[in-house]
Amino acid sequence: MQAWQVHENGEPGEVLRLADVARPVPGDGQVLLRVRAANINFPDALLCRGQYQVRPPLPFTPGVEICGETEDGRRVIANPALPHGGFAEYAVADAAALLPAPDALDDAEAAALHIGYQTGWFGLHRRAGLEAGETLLVHAAAGGVGSAVVQLGKAAGATVIGVVGGPAKAAVARELGCDVVIDRRAEDVVAAVKEATGGRGADVVYDPVGGEAYTQSAKVVAFEGRIIVVGFAGGTIPSPALNHALVKNYSIMGLHWGLYNTKNPKLVQHCHEQLTELAARGAIKPLVSERVPLSGAAAAVQKVADGLTTGRIAVVMEEAAA
What's the whole-model pTM score? Predict the structure, then answer.
């Protein structure tokens, strides 16, 4: 079979190599899946760079989120078990963690439903307790994770403010349903949020960026607001001023979604059922901005690493890449 492999750490476009390799052999409790589509996530770039919290042995195949097909023909969503990731014709995954792919979504959309949407749902509902009528601020609102959170926020009845970088991403955020869109390159984010909320601020802030975005979040979070710290795509890990959280009466919440797979897997299943229902009634639909063949995976991962994408890029195995 064909698979992309990383033999040494570095930039995805430089270290990923397409090779003919043997099909992986499932271990105890694992199944072999034919990959139908693989969604590209920022962690795939971090894996290539050797900067992710999980460091599989070299050589390995990245690709942490797929829509695959079991040997008996079932269409499923899975997180492949590294080092046999999803940027290949076949991958392996833990049998107990397989989730049925929603009928309402095609392979590329189904591949993009899992990590980003689960992370968004857990952040908004399990951690922050977002309520209808509240204001939600989403950083990187046109990105893979941000686009999911915008849709989930709207589905929950929130007023959604999206922060983006550039007019093209602003247009995408509006199409996703943001009530207010702020271009951080052209506007003062803090002033714009305060103007949009009448000075009150945002009840919930979803921050996968860190750095300056977190600094802005602390300035605009409302009384009894909640800042959800999801990641540091901006490259800088902030050091929160806890005295500020005290005097302003807000909460800083961490979210490591992957822990739920071991700490409370039933909740992951429950979340998937909620997402499937939302997809069935059209309340959410993964924004797949580009579909590429397996041969284009390395360049696509580099594009995600460079922050040049909106929504998701999916590697598709059979259907024509748009």
Answer: 0.91
